[in-house]
Amino acid sequence: MAELTFQAHALQLAERIDLKGLEREDQLSSNPLAFPVGRDSVAVLFRFGAAVFINVDPFREEEILAGLKARLVDPLPQRETEAATIVIKPDGDDALVGGNIELKNAAPERLLLVAEALAVSVALAYDEQRIAAAFDRIEPVASSLKRRKLLRGSRSDLVGQIGEALLIQQRLAGRIEIADRPDVLWDHPELERLWVKLADDYDLAIRARAIGQKLEVIRETADTMADLLSTRTSHRLEWYIIVLILVEILLGLYDRFLK
Length: 259
Fold this sequence. Notes:
The chain has six helices and eight strands, in the order βββββαβββααααα. By secondary structure, it is an alpha+beta fold. The chain is elongated.
């Protein structure tokens, strides 16, 4: 049997894709939702907002994406993408050589593992960009906290920074688990080695762990900012109370001695 070459294309479309009701009789998998688009052609949709197309005609790919528009939750203004070349070598072993993914055959379970690796990688790439942008915004805050001072600014600005940090943490906290063991391996444990090779080549575990550590820094910074803001507010209230008491005392003295 001759060698075959497929192109795989992964996109991060949104924060989430609503897959409820998209089940099909010919589906290859329910989690993720995978279905054939043609011979040796597969589309795979992930709840965490990614879609992967393997050996799919670009026009057919656009048709599928157009049909998903109403199901995209918080669609991205600019999609993150990743591509890979799959080479089917019937006489070879599953391997990653020269940047290509070499497979013994085009069995759905093998293509699903490739789709899983690409989807997780493209999702992590998007998350890495968001984390980097968040760090750029909180870096001045962290520097001011290191000097034991709260960054100067209005209360609304500080509350906005806290809210943004918590929102990023909330949205990404569940996403760092997507590099876990794919469901397809429960039915095909013999493909464990292929998944290990894919996960290692795309550094999935390392990248997910790095995002988790950075999320923890963001959470701690937000908590510290909230505590300091609360302390600042309570100190202001104490001064307001002191001033009011002094005014009341002065008014009392005025009524007593000057009237």
